[in-house]
């Protein structure tokens, strides 16, 4: 029973946090103890650089916050937690690329002092380059999109005109073929007229030959 009580302190922290250079980043940490929170509660944040090396304490809380007064995080750690609500979060001001590493939140609420050890990996990146790329992309869209739309509309219009001209060309070809097909009929009519004229001439010739 005593072992169970000793292990009843549970801590939760974000496994990975992303931040941008120069912009405040929040490192969340929450805890739950089976015992009431007292003034004996302790909170410690430690840090190990991404390249490796010894752990260093960057923040300590006991009744009141005590951020580190030395090292790279000097005057850049602020307390944003509330132990009464089980919150032991901190914030880092003006994060740098060199801040990348592993952060560990440790809470002790005597006699609850044993707990799990969650780790938070901080990844700091440059926002400036991403912002510039985004601005350039936006500018490109604003400049080239209207031009692209105009080109598309022109192509669509030209395509329609081409289809219309093509259809007209087909219609003209059919008309000429009809005219060509009519020519034989015209020739036949002329032939009939020629035959009629020839018959009439024969009749005239016959009438002239009757006296003989």
UniProtKB/TrEMBL annotation:
Domain Ig-like intervals: 22-125
Subcellular location: Membrane
Pfam families: V-set
Sorted UniProt keywords: Disulfide bond, Glycoprotein, Immunoglobulin domain, Membrane, Signal, Transmembrane, Transmembrane helix
Membrane association type: Single-pass type I membrane protein
Gene Ontology CC terms, in alphabetical order: plasma membrane
Primary site of residence: membrane
Sequence intervals crossing the membrane: 136-156
Domain of life: Eukaryota
Family membership: Belongs to the myelin P0 protein family.
Protein name as catalogued: MPZL3 protein
Source organism: Irena cyanogastra (Philippine fairy-bluebird)
Gene designation: Mpzl3
């Amino acid at each position: 029973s005593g072992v169970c009580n000793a292990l009843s302190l549970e801590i939760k922290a974000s496994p990975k946090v992303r931040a941008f250079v120069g912009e405040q980043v929040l490192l969340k940490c929450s805890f739950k103890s089976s015992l009431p929170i007292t003034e004996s509660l302790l909170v410690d944040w430690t840090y190990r650089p991404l390249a490796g090396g010894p752990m260093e304490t960057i923040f300590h809380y006991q009744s009141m916050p005590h951020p580190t007064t030395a090292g790279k995080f000097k005057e850049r750690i602020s307390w944003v937690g509330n132990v009464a609500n089980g919150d032991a979060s901190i914030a880092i001001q003006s994060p740098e690329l060199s801040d990348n590493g592993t952060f560990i939140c440790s809470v002790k609420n005597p006699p609850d002092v044993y707990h799990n050890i969650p780790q938070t990996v901080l990844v700091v990146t440059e926002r400036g380059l991403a912002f510039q790329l985004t601005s350039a992309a936006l500018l490109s869209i604003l400049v080239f999109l209207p031009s692209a739309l105009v080109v598309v509309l022109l192509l669509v219009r030209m395509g329609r005109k081409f289809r219309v001209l093509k259809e007209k060309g087909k219609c003209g070809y059919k008309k000429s073929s009809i005219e060509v097909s009519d020519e034989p009929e015209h020739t036949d009519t002329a032939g009939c007229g020629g035959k009629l004229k020839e018959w009439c001439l024969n009749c005239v010739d016959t009438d002239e030959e009757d006296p003989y």
